[in-house]
Design goal:
The chain is globular. The chain has a six-stranded mixed sheet. It has a six-stranded mixed sheet with strand order 6-7-8-9-13-12, with no helix packed on it. It has a two-stranded antiparallel sheet with strand order 10-11. A hairpin with a 2-residue loop joins strand 12 and strand 13. With about 280 residues, the chain is α/β, with parallel strands linked by helices.
């Protein structure tokens, strides 16, 4: 009886592990409409491909999911590509990162920020820092507590990017926002940044980090998410006092090469005008 129970338990564990490996490669490609109050008519229809959390260089299928996302992102024209951190976990992933980013051809450019794994703020003892020059040589604009301004069909679009050197002073990102810009976008790795920003600091905030929990166990109270036990905004689009927040589940995995009930994702955000 005990042997039979052990065999059943072993088979179930193997099935879950097999599915979790499959799910780690099963990228969800999403088109999300974002209705922004007061968006200028010239910016109506602006498209942003949001990618996050590649975690390249580990023993995983992370490189495969990124390749699929890059092919999907390249199928249709887009205006901006935004990458919200955790690009590498090991330096051996640098060539693949460079190839992937250089393959993107949005109308106004690729913009990226670093995540905690990129600067070795992680529980992973083997984590290695990301060389900023790799990101830049691939053609992306790496924003480290700075901003760029774009002219889009006669309107000004500001993209602000924050990095880990701010420590606890995330609220200072609001000081980089240009009140005269027609559209203000913030790229930051951590979704919790919205708790520290003043009201309406940005029109759109893009983040990642949480992987949607990466490994989730269904319970009567909903999912128990093992990657991060608590979060206010796990994934998807949220209206917050600081601005509209989009949290990507990301493309890669960290620590273990599994995902369960938290598929990797790549999202195309389409901005639309909404009445105030």
């Amino acid at each position: 009886m005990i042997r039979r129970a052990a065999a059943v338990a072993g088979a179930a564990a193997a099935a879950v592990a097999g599915w979790s490996l499959f799910e780690s490669q099963w990228v969800e490609f999403r088109d999300e409409k974002v209705e922004l109050p007061g968006l200028a008519p010239e910016l109506d229809g602006l498209t942003i491909v949001h990618l996050s959390d590649f975690h390249l260089g580990t023993l995983s299928f992370n490189g495969r999911t990124l390749e699929r996302a890059i092919r999907w992102a390249s199928e249709r024209p887009c205006d901006i590509v935004a990458i919200t951190g955790d690009l590498l976990s090991r330096r051996r992933g640098e060539p693949q990162l460079e190839r992937a980013v250089s393959a993107l051809e949005p109308r106004f450019g690729v913009f990226a920020v670093l995540g905690n794994h990129d600067v070795e703020i992680t529980r992973d003892p083997f984590s290695q820092p990301t060389d900023a020059s790799v990101v830049q040589s691939a053609g992306a604009v790496l924003l480290e507590n700075e901003s760029v301004s774009l002219s889009v069909d006669g309107r000004s679009v500001q993209i602000v990017g924050g990095d880990q050197s701010l420590g606890p002073y995330w609220s200072s990102l609001a000081g980089l926002a240009d009140p005269e810009a027609d559209l203000r976008i913030l790229l930051f790795h951590y979704p919790d940044v919205v708790r520290y920003l003043p009201p309406e600091a940005f029109d759109l905030i893009l983040a990642g980090h949480l992987h949607g929990g990466q490994i989730c166990i269904p319970t009567l109270r909903g999912k128990m998410r093992l990657e991060h036990l608590r979060a206010e905004h796990w994934d998807g689009l949220h209206e917050t006092r600081a601005g509209f927040l989009h949290v990507s589940r990301g493309l890669g995995t960290s620590f273990v090469p599994f995902r369960l009930l938290a598929r990797p994702e790549a999202t195309r955000l389409v901005l639309r005008s909404a009445a105030r």
